[in-house]
Amino acid sequence: MLLWAGWILIALGIAALPLDRRIAHFFYDHISQANHRWLNGVTHAAKAGHWLGAAILALVAAAVARQLDLHDPKLDMLANYSLAFIASLTVGSAVLHMIKLLLGRRRPRDDMEMGLYGFVPFAFNTNLNSFPSGHALTIFCVGVIFTCVWPMLWPLWFGVAAFLAGVRALLTAHFLSDVLIGSGIGLITARILLALGFPGFAPTWF
Length: 206
Hints:
Blueprint: H1 2-16, H2 20-30, H3 33-42, H4 48-67, H5 73-103, H6 108-114, H7 134-149, H8 154-170, H9 176-197
Helix pairs in contact: 1-9, 4-5, 5-7, 5-9, 7-8, 7-9, 8-9
């Protein structure tokens, strides 16, 4: 299911490309400064560094518990899901940054502030890094892992992931297609890594 969902998000992202500029200008013109400040605070919840740090802390806690002969199945589960997240984020980020470097898309703010818009393929310029969204990829990887741990709450996890990913477009930090495709890459890589490296850790409907 998640593979299909990921490919659908990528297809929607490709379909959104011709509309990106119009949608970004709409958000830029209609979101108030107060809402922009609130959204700017919320968006940090999707940063990779925060979740990566939490996963590393979980691994350290599990390792310390083993050294102290505290054998708790929950700690082992925490360590395994943390490893699954780190693997998913690592592979997904490698794919994402390769696309960023190869396609080189300007961010919406370049269009709003300087009138510069579009892709600059093969420029290999790290400042041309709008496409796809790393925040969207990260938070969808988190959503996948949380769904493995608490599968009955999957609408909540993916709802929160969709909201936090969408905030990137609302802030005009990314175009809508950047967000959709980043989200799709996150779903696909997390699903594949779980199936290959951590069999039995995901619900059967994954």
